[in-house]
Amino acid sequence: MSTPFLDAIHITPLGEGRYRSRFDAPWYQGRGAFGGVVAGQILRAMEHVVADAGRPVRSFTVHFCAPASEGEAELRVRIERAGKLVTHATARIENAAGVVSVASATFGISRAVGVEYVQAKRPEAPPPDEVGMLPEGVPVPTFTQFFEYRFCVGSAPYSGGEPRAGGWIRPKGEPLVLDPALCVALLDAYPPSVLSTMEGLHSVASVDFTVHFFHALPRPADRAGAYYLRTGASRWAGEGFAEDFQELWSEEGVLLAQCRQCIAVLG
Q1: Which fold is adopted by the domain 4-109+125-217+224-265?
Q2: Could you tell me the pLDDT band of residue 160, with boundaries at 50, 70 and 90?
Q3: Beta-sheet strands, E only, within the chain
Q4: What distance in Å separates the CA atoms of residue 30 and residue 189, rounded to the nearest whole number?
Q5: Which DSSP category does 199 fall into?
Q6: Which among 182, 153, 148, 185 has a CA at the least distance from the CA of 167?
Q7: CA 150 → CA 103, 130, 145, distances in Å?
Q8: Which residues are CB-contacts of 73 (< 8 A; sequence separation ≥ 6)?
Q9: Rounded distance between C-alpha atoms, residue 63 and residue 102, angstroms
Q10: Three-class SS state of 53
C-alpha cells in the first residue's frame, strides 16, 4: 500500500545497517522536513535491523541536530547490545549538509510480571465526529496538509491562552493502522503547547523528543482509519526553551504512548 505518509518514511536498504531515504518539500515544517517524518524513517530502519516482531519498541529518543533539507539522505543503524529480553539500538541520519539527527531506541519482549495499572486519565473531549476540522486559511506548516485535525483540547496557537493544545487526529488518504512510526508522527503533528500562550506568529523547533510506547503496535484490535486523541501541555518555558508533554489515546480511552519534547523558541 502507498500513502503520502508511508511514501515519506520509505527507506531503501543498502546493506550492513545502511539505508537511503529522502525528504521532500511538501513535508516541510519551516526550513526542513517535519520531525515526525525524520523520526519515522529512523524508526523504520531500526525495526528492520532488529527484525524481531516479538521485541516491539518501548522507548525512542531523537535529537534533531539540523533541518532535514530536501533531497536524499543516508541512515545508519547499529545494534549496541541484544540481550535475552532487551535490544538497544542507535541510529544516525545524514544528508549532503551533514548530520540531521541521531537517535536511540530500546526494544523489549513482553513479560507477565504481575503488576499492571494506569494512573493517567484522558482529558474530557467530545467524539471526533462532533468536532469541526481545521478550517482553510489557518497559518500552519506545509506538512499539516497530510493530516486531519480536530482541535478540541486547550487553546489555539497564538491565542494568548493556556499552554495546552491538542485534539483528534489521523492521516488523510488511505486508512492506516497505527504502528510505531505513525504513532510518533501523530504525537509530533500538533503545534507545541507554548505557542498557545503567544499572540502573533512565532517560530519554534524541536530540539529532541523521547517517546515511550505502552503497547506493542499495531494492536490486534486496532482498525484502519481510526482517530486518536493527542493531548499536549507545557509546564515550563524560559531562556528560549520550553518543555512539552504529550499523550496519545485511542477512541476507546486507551493510553497508547507519551512523548516529552524540548522545544526551542526562536522568536
Answers
A1: Porin (2.40.160)
A2: very high
A3: 12-15, 18-23, 28-29, 32-33, 57-64, 71-82, 86-95, 98-108, 147-154, 164-171, 204-213, 228-233, 237-238, 241-250, 255-265
A4: 13
A5: B
A6: 153
A7: 30, 9, 13
A8: 20, 21, 22, 23, 41, 93, 94, 95, 100
A9: 5
A10: coil
Residue 62: per-residue pLDDT: 98
Angle at 76 between CA 71 and CA 80, to 5 degrees: 155
Strands 28-29 and 147-154: unpaired
DSSP-derived secondary structure letter, 174: S
Show the cell assigned to 28: 516541510
Distance CA 5, CA 10 (A): 9
- Residue 89 · residue 78 · CB < 8 Å: yes
The per-residue DSSP string of 70-96 comes to SEEEEEEEEEEEE-SSEEEEEEEEEET
Joined grid coordinates for residue 164 = 495546552
DSSP annotation of 158 reads T
Residue 200 pLDDT level (bands cut at 50, 70, 90) = confident
Mean pLDDT of 27-42: 95
Cell of 256: 497508547
